[in-house]
Amino acid sequence: MKIIDSHVHFFDATRGDGVVWPPIDSPVYGDGIALPAQRAALAADKSLAGVVAVETSRRDVDDHWLLELAGNNSRILGTVLNLRPDQSGFSARLERASRSPKFVGLRLRPVTHYNFGSRRLLRNLAKIEKLTKTIEFGAPDSALKATFAQLAERLAGTRLILDHAGHPCAGCHTDEGWLGSMRDISVRPNVYVKVTDFIGKLPDWPSTLDVLLNLFGPDRLLYGSNWPVSEVCQVAELGEFLAADAAGFFSDNARAAYQI
After folding, report:
1. Of 83, 103, 155, 257, which is the most exposed, with the fewest CB atoms less than 10 Å away?
2. Rounded to two decimals, what is the model's pTM?
3. What is the C-alpha to C-alpha distance for residues 226 and 34, in angstroms, rounded to an integer?
4. 103-107 and 76-81: which strand pairing?
5. Could you give the CA distance from residue 258 to residue 260 in angstroms, rounded to a whole number?
6. Domain range list for the chain
7. Inter-residue contact 59 to 84 (CB < 8 Å)
8. What Å distances lie between residue 14 and 17, 32, 68, CA to CA?
9. Strands (DSSP E) along the chain, which ranges?
10. How many CA atoms lie within 13 A of 138 on its CB side?
């Protein structure tokens, strides 16, 4: 079974422009480098078919660096950029990004910096819909989950991806607040969910994953490791748990969501 890791981060602090993430005192920083060859080296069984590289910065220079990295590396199947759709320079940044066949979507991060009542933001997000790219962001609290559901309804022709599975906690699979918010999102057929972080970290992750499968079905869940923030683990356990749905989860759904 081939795997597409739909959520990885690359950085190289030795570049002249440096990096804004991760900070040097972060355990993620390490030796200041996280690049495709390092991620590929973790796939000892050679099952990694490729990755989707997700931006970690709002700087234009970093978007350009990530696109250039992707253009020179066949392991990177797609890039998700920030491009600042809340700013007047968005159209120019979007036009430049769209020249690359590796540009697949937009990420809003940090999501708390965005005013979803802004006409400029909504108008610029509609441009993503016309280009058939994706929009994604994390929604750790109920208010942001409600915003995500509303945006998915407003941009019904756009594929939206909820990062980090709605940030579940231990016991969330029985918490009506989390369940209700996720249920509201799940009724939007244009929504996909990245399953990252909680796998292997929450003692009750199988129950949480069961809830996500019941809400979204096996065709709208994507595998993402969140490397190097999180370790790449539990792949074998996930494969056994998902059984016949494993191929979709680990590869086919990412191709459908990002059109790669």
Report:
1. 155
2. 0.96
3. 12
4. parallel
5. 6
6. 3-258
7. no
8. 8, 7, 16
9. 3-8, 11-12, 33-34, 48-54, 76-81, 103-107, 134-138, 159-163, 191-195, 221-223
10. 16
Token pair recorded at residue 109: 């991060």
Type of residue found at 99 = R
* 1, amino acid identity: M
| Arithmetic mean of pLDDT over the chain | 95
Q: What is the pLDDT of residues 154-189, one digit of tens each?
A: 999 999 999 999 999 999 999 999 999 999 999 999
Average of pLDDT values for 24-48? 91
> In this structure, how many other beta carbons lie within 10 angstroms of the beta carbon of residue 239?
18
The Cα-based distances of 151 to 115, 119, 129, 158, 172 in angstroms read 12, 13, 12, 10, 23
Domain 3-258 has CATH 3.40.50.620: no
Q: Are 76 and 53 in contact (CB under 8 A)?
A: yes
Tell me the two tokens of residue 219.
């065709």
The pair of structure tokens assigned to 41 is: 């080296």
Q: Which of 115, 122, 124, 66 is nearest to 90 (CA)?
A: 124
List Cβ neighbours of 219 (8 Å cut-off, separation of 6 or more).
Answer: 248, 253, 256
Which has the closest alpha carbon to 132: 155, 164, 116, 110?
155
User: 245: how many CB neighbours lie within 10 A of its CB?
Assistant: 17
Contacts for 96 with CB less than 8 Å, ≥ 6 apart: 64
SS3 content of the chain, % helix, strand, coil (to 5): 40, 20, 40
Find, among 186, 159, 168, the residue nearest to 253 by Cα.
159
Residue 176 CA neighbour count, 13 Å, CB half: 0
